[in-house]
Specification:
- The chain is an alpha+beta fold and 710 residues long.
- Helices cover 22% and strands 29% of the residues.
- It contains 13 helices and 35 strands.
- The longest helix is centred in the C-terminal third of the chain and has 23 residues.
- It is globular, with a radius of gyration of 27 Å.
- The protein starts with 5 loop residues before the first helix and ends with a strand.
- The structure holds alpha-D-galactopyranose (GLA).
- The site of alpha-D-galactopyranose has 11 residues, from loops.
Amino acid sequence: MQTIPGSLKLMALALALASTAAGAESVRLQTKNLALEFEVGEGGRLYQRALGVRTKQERLQRTDEAYPQAGDGYVWEPALQVVHADGNTSTALVYDGVQRKQEAQDRELVRIKLRDPAYAFEAALCFRVHRDRDVLEQWTEIRHHEPGVVALERMASTSLLLLPANVELTHFYGDWANEMNPVRERLTPGTKVLDSKLGVRAHQFRNPSFLLSLDGPASETAGRVLAGSLAWSGSFQCAFDHLGERVRVLCGVNPFASAYHLEPETTFSTPVMIWVWSSAGFGEMSRKLHAWARDFGFRDGHEPRTVLLNNWEATGFDFDFNRIAGLFEPAKQLGVELFLLDDGWFGNNYPRVDDWAGLGDWEPNRKRLPQGLAPLAAEATKRGLRFGIWLEPEMVNPQSELFENHPDWVIRQPKRELELQRNQLALDLTRPEVQEFEWKVIQDVLGVADVSYAKWDCNRYLTQPGSSWLAPERQSHLWIDYVRALYALMDRTAKAFPKTELMLCSGGGGRADYGALKYFHEFWPSDNTDPVRRVAMQWDYSYFFPAMTLAAHVTHWGKRPMHFACAVAMSARFGMDLDLAKLSAEDKSVCAGAISAYKRIRDVTHLGDLYRLERPHHAPRGALNFVSPDRSRAVLFVFQLKEGEPLPVRPEGLDPARRYAVRELNPAPGRAALPQEGKAITGADLMRDGLIPSCAKAVEACVVELGPEP
Ligand code: GLA
């Protein structure tokens, strides 16, 4: 055999590399203000040009891989980690072409195909590019034709690269009744992990949504920012791998104890990651995300929501037909449109009179509701109210007929003492009989004539993740298969009851994510309804979720003045959870005023654009305003949290040339009118000079409509 001298070998290699570089294939995803570029490099590997880079760097390195795989050279946090059918723990994917499909005028589906030349194994990096919205939906599809099962040990939805110069991360932590506390920090070398291991919900301690600003601290109006929100209601992981010269953002199902054994010829689709870009700060980013969400993220996003009355804080578990029916007339008189019957309406052998018993036995309690739900719902209809019902289909109390009959239906670990949360257990939704049982419960309850609203609750998370349905070697599938079965059930519900409005609740805000929200209309952000806490919490949720999805009920939590509590709830999806008959005459009139004001402005607050004006955290007040899509109307909210100077508050987003009539809505009794009350002022003047609000003392609020001149 002829040998090639060393120098010639080097020359040949150099030529080969040059031709790869010169003819390098690339894939470009382009929205209005964001370009995401992938490039095929040495050996056919796919690389990403870091997001937000202004000048192209020339040399591609392993740290630039688009979707790095473990086991063949990549030594940092991988996006994909696989055990192949023959036991090989390495994967090496090469570029295998791109498919592009124009789904709508400004929407394209792009699938970048990758394959492992040594294995019948492939992955597709999928993007739905919403060009004009600056939104990318991203997920990964994994498939193989190997002669046996392949174990997926890590399978990120996304693995985006940023330049690390000065990246700031904002994430949100909390606990029950204290969800969504923001933390802002600069990313430094090392891996920062945000995750949850709760199984049936994503959130309680951490939300799967975060903000990144690329040039240090951004503001509402300035800075290049990227928001990420993982559409997944189970255990998740977001890892920010700062490698010195790059930051890789990995997000997806939590790899923790979740190896998934993929059969040949089946496709594993990861949850969708939603990315939103703005070059003009957090405000514009949120407005883009909200507009996307109204069209794609939740149901009926263009229909303003009604005024709801819930009986939970008023009656708790202690009610019967007459007590509930007695709430209807005062509600109607005040202007309420929808009544929601909460927990406690079911269970006979084990009546649901507290949270110890009855969960799982969904027949109406014969003592409380002798004729079932239908007459109560009919009574509400007769009084001109819609009727809604509380449900927790996934759960069971040990003290129930359901548990007595099917002790094997619950999620638990054999040989371990049962660990209850709120005295209850989760049913194993991977089991087909459980799926059918829950579906029947939903059909029976939502099928009752006159029921047009439901609150779907989930009051525990998994702490002993064992399934008697899944095989011993497939226990790790529980985390993923549970959520998939849940989505199938939610999808079935949304399709079978297209006119029924659905609220998502999970022991407070445990299911505040776009995975489940797709099948719902709104979610319950927190059991904490103290309006002072809600001002900041609703602000933080509003980075990602539009006001119409944030259920906000007026209650006595925190014992705040009724006027303040109403103003805070009116800035989101308004409801009340009060015994209206027990209110003082003054509070009743404040509530009636708030309800009629809400009806007047809800098309603006629900369908319009949000401008966060003054951040309420550690500040004397918070302020925000909404502007209708045609900019003819706006609503300004000022929440005074501490005594402060009556400084002007400046609305944003108005049409500078238009004149707006200033009118305070539902003014607090006994307070002086706004200095500008009744005047018509141009948008330019309002935005420059602002308005002096009528509130200056702690827990006072002011809601101002800026409307067309009379
Ligand atoms: C959860 C919800 C509450 C209420 C109760 C009923 O705690 O967050 O709003 O529905 O369950 O048991």
